[in-house]
UniProtKB/TrEMBL annotation:
Pathway(s) annotated for this protein in UniProt: Cofactor biosynthesis; riboflavin biosynthesis; riboflavin from 2-hydroxy-3-oxobutyl phosphate and 5-amino-6-(D-ribitylamino)uracil: step 1/2
Entry function: Catalyzes the formation of 6,7-dimethyl-8-ribityllumazine by condensation of 5-amino-6-(D-ribitylamino)uracil with 3,4-dihydroxy-2-butanone 4-phosphate. This is the penultimate step in the biosynthesis of riboflavin.
Keyword presence, Transferase: yes
A Gene Ontology term for the protein's cellular component: cytosol
Family the UniProt entry places it in: Belongs to the DMRL synthase family.
GO molecular function (one): 6,7-dimethyl-8-ribityllumazine synthase activity
Protein name (database record): 6,7-dimethyl-8-ribityllumazine synthase
Record: residues binding 5-amino-6-(D-ribitylamino)uracil: 31, 65-67, 90-92, 123
Length: 163
């Protein structure tokens, strides 16, 4: 369903697992940090609202979205107490095909991490045509994709623990 037709960021926490003993890492790209900080804030707020302790939310920054792949891989390697990792980035189309390669590279890289990792890696990457689309999806009229990523993380942690 297209975001434009619905704000997908609303949730009913009574239908979600209690996160009091969950630990989540969030790797944040510094490119378009006005947007990525908004996405991070949405994710952090939802995780805290659903019971996580502040000390159980671990944030690492990386230069750009392409570095989210290595950052998430390294975070998983060095912190074996994590239950999930969320990667947060915002790629905005420029004049060249670089947008296409960054978006596809990060998508495949995060997909590959999910194939080899024992914990879920949640994909919170905006791939927008212009910044207005990014603003609308990082706490604007179309909600916050960071919130949605946090909800996905909670659900996947619960699934992983019950598997
Ligand atoms: N143009 C954007 C980038 N580009 C940088 C790459 O992500 C990467 O850091 C560089 O190629 C060095 O490896 N990154 C974003 O996150 N958003 C953009 O719009
Ligand atoms: C996604 C990018 O790296 C892009 O924003 C860079 O802009 P340009 O394609 O004009 O070099």
């Amino acid at each position: 369903m297209a975001t434009a037709n619905k704000n997908l960021s609303e949730y009913d926490k009574t239908t979600l697992p209690d996160g009091k003993d969950f630990r989540v890492g969030i790797v944040v790209s510094e490119w378009n940090d006005q947007i990525t900080n908004g996405l991070y804030s949405g994710a952090e707020a939802a995780l805290l609202d659903c019971g996580l302790l502040a000390e159980n939310i671990v944030r690492w920054n990386v230069p750009g979205s392409f570095e989210l792949i290595f950052g998430a891989k390294k975070m998983i390697e060095v912190d074996e107490t994590l239950d999930a990792v969320i990667v947060v980035g915002c790629v905005i189309k420029g004049e060249t095909m670089h947008f296409d390669f960054v978006c596809e590279g990060v998508t495949h890289g995060i997909k590959d991490l999910n194939l080899i990792s024992d914990i879920p890696v949640i994909f919170c990457l905006l791939t927008d045509n212009h910044i207005e689309q990014s603003i609308a999806r990082s706490g604007g009229e179309h909600g916050n994709k960071g919130t949605e990523a946090a909800i996905a993380a909670l659900k996947m942690i619960d699934l992983n623990r019950k598997a």
